[in-house]
């Protein structure tokens, strides 16, 4: 039994507004899920949804994960940047150099993302949402490789990347130095066992791989909150 990645979840002060922004940028369908709130359904082979959940907590420092959006031509890169700005995004200075070809932006709640120039060989066979780029150790890349049973498509100089066998974006971790964790992550994975699986057995498997149970103030819920070896929270829901 292996967990399925159901969704990438964003904590948001205004979940619907943030979902509308990303629906416009990615051109994905926005639905109101009665269980999880505003949810985006991919229109390509991405394989997981985006969920937006309410929080009152302020954003503290850069996110653990950010999107890398790809471009096939210079015109497409300019169009993506213009569309994001028109929808409420903004340019962001994170110390990038003038000669760098990617454009760094922030969504309306300050979540970072990059619009890459054409010719990115690493993401050449990926779609518009080319990568979910993470700040993390080699160990955490190995953990998610085993947790999701996704092939390890990069493992060099302590940088790792995995990708679903069905395609979609790569999930990458840049290796050391890893930024210190500043409170609960604003972006996290939602997992679930297969429909015929057992939630508690999957919890035990993930614990054996290096996960830990964590308390983020959850009350009576049907999901289990865990953390990966880098201490980043994720949720394991019951099979549905």
Automatic annotation (TrEMBL):
Gene Ontology MF terms in the entry: lyase activity
Classification via Pfam families: Glyoxalase_6
Entry keyword set: Lyase
Highest taxon of source: Bacteria
Every Glyoxalase-like domain range: 8-116, 137-236
InterPro entries, alphabetized: Glyas_Bleomycin-R_OHBP_Dase (IPR029068), Glyoxalase_6 (IPR041581)
Protein name in UniProt: Putative enzyme related to lactoylglutathione lyase
Organism: Crossiella cryophila
């Amino acid at each position: 039994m292996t967990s399925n990645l159901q969704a990438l979840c964003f904590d948001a002060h205004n979940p619907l507004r943030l979902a509308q922004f990303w629906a416009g940028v990615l051109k994905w369908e926005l639905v109101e899920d009665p269980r999880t709130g505003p949810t985006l359904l991919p229109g390509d082979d991405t394989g997981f949804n985006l969920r937006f959940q309410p929080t009152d907590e302020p954003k503290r420092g850069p996110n653990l994960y950010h999107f890398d959006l790809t471009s096939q031509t210079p015109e497409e890169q300019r169009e993506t940047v213009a569309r994001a700005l028109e929808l409420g995004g903004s340019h962001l200075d994170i110390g990038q150099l003038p000669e760098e070809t990617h454009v760094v932006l922030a969504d309306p709640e300050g979540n970072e993302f990059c619009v890459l120039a054409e010719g990115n060989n690493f993401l050449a066979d990926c779609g518009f949402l080319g990568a979910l780029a993470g700040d993390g150790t080699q160990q955490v890349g190995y953990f998610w490789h085993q947790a999701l049973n996704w092939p390890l498509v990069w493992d060099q100089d302590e940088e790792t990347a995995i990708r679903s066998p069905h395609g979609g974006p790569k999930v990458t971790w840049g290796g050391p130095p890893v930024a210190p964790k500043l409170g609960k992550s604003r972006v996290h994975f939602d997992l679930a066992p297969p429909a015929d699986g057992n939630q508690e057995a999957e919890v035990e498997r993930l614990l054996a791989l290096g996960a830990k149970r964590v308390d983020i103030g959850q009350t009576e819920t049907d999901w289990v909150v865990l953390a990966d070896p880098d201490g980043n929270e994720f949720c394991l829901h019951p099979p549905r």
